Amino acid sequence: MNASVASAKTAHSTLNSCLLLFAIVSVAALSVAAEEPTQSLTSEQAKALAVDVTVRLIDASDQMFGSGVVIGISDREFFVLTAQHVVSAAKPFRIRCYEPRIANNSRVVRDHSSVEVIAQDAGCDLALVRVKSGIPAAASAILVNSRKIFPKEFSKAWTVDWTGPAIELANSPEPTRRQARRSNDAMPMSFWVLNTPSKAGMSGGPLLSSSGALMGIASGNSDGHAYYVDEAEIASFLETHTVNSPKSTPPDGHGN
Description:
It is a single chain. It contains three helices and 15 strands. By secondary structure, it is mainly β. A hairpin with an 8-residue loop joins strand 11 and strand 12. The longest helix is centred in the first third of the chain and has 11 residues. The N and C termini lie far apart (35 Å).
């Protein structure tokens, strides 16, 4: 990634613009936890969590153009964190996610069209989307600061890929933290770097720790490596764009 994150179709483009704040929201449901559970998830538990919290961004042609992760749930709305370059064009889009309910022995997938990008920052490549719906998301991811709390839990990571018909997980051992720039004139920021690139369409999707905490958002690829905006940058972005102390809303069996 040296000077910039390499482009890979729309899902891995490199953008550089000023901070755009559409609304400072009071979101008590944003899932920033005071501490992280230390027990590692099994692959089955990690898959169940990924299904609960991962979303697709769908355009007017019913094509997937990016991913995201549910980061908070409140009354008749929920909030999705994604990559800023995914939503920067501001075209109409829908959020597709799994409902909590099951029908015909399968989880129900629903599209939500009442969506609004309420904050975005090209500098850290993050955006916050509000989804208004009477049907809530199944669960929200939990974010912690690994620099202060249980850093050993971040020695392994799960990548989440919903570019195909079903969500797929891959175990990525020993992710490394690195300072990099998204463009030549951008400020350095902190990324998790993985040894394998992410696919087009995974941008905005989550990187989960071994215990299921949100540790990164897919931002792009460079030199065969995937770059994920790290949890410290995410926490800073959320603190800038929320005014209430957040609380976690984890799914049953995941987190505290």
